[in-house]
Fold each of these.
Amino acid sequence: MSRFTFAALLSLRTRAVVVLAAIAVLLSGCQGSPAPGGSPSGTGSTTASPTSSVSVPTATATPSISGVYKPADAKGKAQNVPVPVMPELAKENSKAGLEAFIGYWYATYSYATETGDLGPWSQSTDVTTVSGAAYKKAVELNYTKGRWVVGGRITTPVVEVLWQEGVDTQSAKVQVLQEQILYFDADGSSGQQGTPEFNTAEAVKATYRGNSWQVTDNGLIVG
């Protein structure tokens, strides 16, 4: 048995704008192999390549409005960003369903980071928790008063669900890759120091409620 400690603190993608105190351990004494790419360093990053991958349906994306997708740049916000669409499999209360849901959930946060629109992400997240509220606040701060960000798109090459039969709340380990983020104020000036791209191992805890999954905690794997 491998022992992991999962602290619900923000990843590099949000710590530039929000500071949290550490909260309770998410998982302890879990069955399974070490987190993808090995344990992160003190900064929460890891450079090792994943040793395995999971083949699950990924969230598709369709334009919410007509027009050509244009990523954000120093001149303005992203335009016509495709909205993630939840795969049917992600609605199932099963190991495969949770794997698909987690991929979709990260896609919704990537979309929120790029657009400031938290709608799809909020529908799949318990925002009353410390971690959920903090992630929400981070996006809101990045887009308040005309601000915007450039970059920050997220991908999840590896999702490992630590499935337990007969329980509604399940846990997973996820390799998370995120592009560099640059921050801009309404006047086009650089709002703050950018956040570098990173490769981290994260923990996700999700509960099946009302025939759908909802993320109830998320943070870096720190030990």
Note: The domain at 12-220 is CATH 3.10.450.50 (Nuclear Transport Factor 2; Chain: A,).
Amino acid sequence: MNSPWRFFIVVEALLFLLAVWQIINNAPLLILLGIGLLNVYIAANRKKQSKTKNFQLIVGCLMILISLLNSVALWLMLVFAVLFIGLKGVELSGIDFSKRSFWQKKQIIMVETTEPQDHGGKKKKQQWFGNERIGNTVYEWDDINLSILSGDTIIDLGNTILPKNDNIVLVRKGFGRTRILIPTGIGVQLEHAAFAGSVIFESKETELRNEVLTVFSNDYSDSPRRLKIVSNTLLGDLEVIRV
């Protein structure tokens, strides 16, 4: 699936159906759940506030809770939710809790840039599947070249400083969503080709059907730092966001 959250919802829905089936096939749990729901309904429809109403409401909620907690599928739902949010939720949101620590609230990070130098070259392994986020921490800028078969990608340029003149981001993808976060003050040129998908650029959405889109930001000609984004996607959306 293109969206991990869609996968999460489907799995949770299947586990919920399994929990309902387990309760229906367990007569004591079904009776306990029914009595609990009946108590909550009666207490909620009582107009006058009284101790009896509050007691009946609490007893009804406890009966519902006990009947649900006796379902193995419900525990599987909770375990899967904790694992998914712990492993994927924080990753997709881009939240770095280390930066929110109280001892780092007054921290100042200085990033120094240098002129491009001659290098002997390097080789980097790329993953074909899965979600990826570039730019969680402060990093030295280097032109980005990505090739991904399937997955969601986030490229955050807020934690780096682009050198003056032209910089390049090249993304080739089969399926998935791509989001590129760009600081203000950088001129952007976008060339995006897609078999099917949409592009959001400068708060304007464009649908593509086997088409190529070339657009420029309003400040492209006057910006000392410029970024050229070249993207090719079979099925998926591209979003360029100013931060």
Note: The two ends are 28 Å apart (CA to CA).
